[in-house]
Specification:
single chain; about 70 residues; mainly alpha; two-stranded antiparallel ribbon; 2 helices; 2 strands; about 50% helix; about 5% strand
């Protein structure tokens, strides 16, 4: 039969240390990884203004013509 494996105190501490280190590295870099690019809000606002004004040719951002992308 196969021998049963039990976690020794040293293995438990090592496993906990790896988990804590991985958690710290994961949560420390959350600020650098953005879920939504910063341009998405601007493009959504331009689409909303195009719908409101009915002018689908000229994109506008805060009532100014916006021809840059």
């Amino acid at each position: 039969m196969l021998a049963e494996r039990h976690l020794t105190p040293l293995n438990s501490v090592a496993l906990l240390a790896v988990f804590v280190l991985a958690s710290v590295l994961w949560f420390a870099t959350l600020d650098y990884r953005h879920l939504i690019p910063t341009d998405e809000g601007r493009y959504a606002q331009m689409a909303r203004e195009m719908m409101v004004s009915g002018d689908y040719i000229t994109p506008r951002y805060n009532d100014y013509k916006y021809f840059e992308k």
